[in-house]
Amino acid sequence: MRLVLASNNAKKLAELQTLFAPLGIELVNQGALGIPEAEEPFDSFVENALAKARHAAQLSGLPALADDSGISVTALGGAPGVRSARYAADAGGAKSDAANNERLLREMARIDAREARFVCALVAVRSSTDPEPLIAMGRWQGRILHELTGEGGFGYDPLMYIDALGATVAQLDAATKNQHSHRALAAAQLLAQFREAWGLG
Question: Is the pTM of the predicted complex or chain greater than 0.85?
Answer without folding.
Answer: yes
